[in-house]
Queue: 3 jobs
Job 1
Amino acid sequence: MEIYAEYMELLLDSLQSMAGTQAVLSPVSITEMAWEPNHGASQALKSAMGFVPGIIATDDVFLELAKRYSQEELPDIDELAVDSVEEFLNVVNGLFTIQMAKEKITAELDLPRSGENVQPVGGDQLRLRVITAFGSFEAVLSADEFITEQ
């Protein structure tokens, strides 16, 4: 759980610095939330312990995150929008591997994954609702990959 807490702190800071929005965690249970249609992105950090962080968001929130990160006008969720969210995760995860290295834990980033209408599967999951100025999304932290091939 400590690694999950450290990651979420970095994610919230990164949303402010890279997407220009304050973000807070909500106590609302994920089971009370409906996420379809949605898009999701994840990226595994290969290390001695399995760790796969990612996000799942309704299409409008996913697109807004892509716009804010890329600073591009993106009319629809297309390859560029998905790449933008994957790159956002890649940067956050790169910063996280640097934090881990300071604690003598080495990790390598795997290639990002994405999908539509994601229903996360995976072990030791923590699913948190993140509220931003442009809407809410789900942060998923898992011991293994949670986006399945479609």
Job 2
Amino acid sequence: MRIIDLQDKQGGVDISLKIIWDQAKPEERFGKKIKSVLVADAESKQGDPTAYLDLTNEDIEKYKQFDKIKVTNAYTKLRHNGQFWITNAEQIEKIEEE
């Protein structure tokens, strides 16, 4: 799946992404630490669609800018500005470069 294929209020999303911006400060929300990072498709080029991804708790320190990651079983929301938000991921893991 790619960012361009996302739908509003879609569950069960599996997608490969790269973190392109991670300078936000973590916030305490819903009883956990959450940091929102800007992501693009793992193989994207400049100008391709982007989305926000919520990293929680230990994932905040584990993943950094330019990391490629695989997000499993997440939920998406379309924000009022047309930007997608990917949240509540069941699992996030780093994609190792070959």
Job 3
Amino acid sequence: MNYIKVLIRALLAPWIVIKNLILYYYGHYATSKFSCTSSLKKKGYYFFNEKLDIQSLNVLRYEFDRLLELNELSSFGQNNGRILIEDHLNIEIRNLVVFFREKAKDYFKLSFVDTEIIYFQKSKKELEENNVPGGVFHLDDNKKNLKFFVYLDDVSVKNGPFKYVENSHGPFSFEKIYRWFFWELTLSRKFLYSSSKRKFESTVSIIGPAGSMFCADTTGFHKAEKIEEGTRKVFVVSFAETRFDPYSFLKK
């Protein structure tokens, strides 16, 4: 069975990468409806001027605390401190997801966008670098991804802010196409990760008070900085390009 899967991926990988390239260019050059879309196209990220209102922020905090009581958090690897929200969204979270989805629809140039993942994450100071979730510059996938973040705590340079390499999003280099192709072919995440020693120019660390909201195209290089003091709690909603997905067709 594994040989069959490898053969299918080998046959489909060239077509899928080309398809993703075409869809990415289509969205990149289409007319934008929102200012955040223009910023995303240009730099790969956008920091919202408005913060989440205190009532909605407190609801998110309460929901996170409630889930923490019901779930045992992983303390290792990329899932360190993460709690997935799979169903039973309260009204505040549903409204926030709808707000973000409208922005994603404009960025993807789609009339409907599926939510890929929703989660809370609590990060703390770690001794082992491998236990810092997303602690090395990486890409999330080989298809356009848009991830929205809400800081539930005040985040300074010492609280492990999200860090992004400006204008590294999109398939605009041989390196990105190479990484996209071999990720599609092998599903080995090593092709999505950069060397920990690699130095990037034009990086930005996103800091801000509790309630700060921002989004990033995570086909660009990004990471979470190490926490030097305190903790960082964040709410995350992710959307992904899913048009013309042959694997969903094969499953049917």
